[in-house]
Amino acid sequence: MIQIDHNFSGTAIIHGDTLSVLKEIPDGVFGGIITDPPYASGAADQNARQMTTSQKYSSAKPKNVLPDFEGDAKDQRSWTRWMTEWLTEARRCTRSGAPICMFIDWRQLPNMTDALQWAGWIWRGVLVWDKVNSRPQRGRFRQQAEFMVWGSNGHMPSDRAAPVLPGVFRQPMPAFTKRIHQTEKPLSVMRELVKIVEPGGIILDPFAGAGTTVLAVKQEGYSAVGIELSPHYAEAAMRRLEQADGTTDEPASAA
Ligand SMILES: C[S@@+](CC[C@H](N)C(=O)[O-])C[C@H]1O[C@@H](n2cnc3c(N)ncnc32)[C@H](O)[C@@H]1O
After folding, report:
1. Residue 243 is assigned to a structural domain of this protein
2. Does 18 sit in the ligand 1 pocket, CB within 6 Å?
3. I want to staple 48 with a disulfide (CB 3.0 to 4.6 A). Which of 16, 43, 109, 221 is the partner?
4. Tally of structural domains, the chain
5. Residue 196 included in any domain
6. Strand, helix or coil at 155?
7. Does residue 4 lie in a domain region?
8. What is the span of the domain harbouring residue 178?
9. What is the value of pTM for the model shown?
10. Ligand 1 center to 233 CA (angstroms)
11. Is the CB of 201 under 6 A from ligand 1?
12. From edge to edge, which strands make up the β-sheet containing 223-228?
């Protein structure tokens, strides 16, 4: 495995299980964590939660069939326990005062904020990602938003070298035909989020998927390490970074 320590610079995607990989990394290496873990959600009951990720998250579009991804079938208790374990290990690998920011949906939001605090992080708030488009349902509110839970590894000084950032981001998901991951996040939103980390910090994405966070980090001039368990997506992320030419999608608007 590539050596990840305080001297690391550039970008790397590591193919492996986050918890095992983090155990090999020294204390206090990362300047921040920006991630999008498997939600193990997308369904109201246990049977539905154990469907494949394409059954849960993709409308059947035969032109762009994307492989399923890992870790999305846990029940809520197991998911919360597992979240607490990797968040504990990730905090050890993160500098004091460093921020963390994690995507989640409405069902798992309370479990994520529990896990964050059980792992010793300070919970600082919830950001909103307005996805603009969502399935209309008669007699129901639209599930139009996902959320980003954020916090810090202990005290976070107010004079950190980070800008004022919005609390609401408005940007549709990447078009289905252009996506390389079933739950790919918009690059422009990721480029805003990574700015919460002070310049010079190494950013960790422990669930890299198709490498959107790591690409955003690269475009914003930081260093980053992404970890991904699925061989298909680890490979896709590596290829995406190699091919990155500095182009981006539409800028996210702060709502
Ligand atoms: C929600 S997706 C991330 C998508 C990513 N934000 C993007 O834009 O492409 C979560 C990813 O975490 C990976 N994963 C699940 N369990 C993992 C584990 N234990 N270690 C590392 N990666 C894992 C899944 O294979 C999946 O690709």
Report:
1. yes
2. yes
3. 43
4. 1
5. yes
6. coil
7. no
8. 11-254
9. 0.92
10. 8
11. no
12. 11-15, 223-228, 202-205, 32-35, 99-104, 145-152, 122-130, 168-170, 253-254
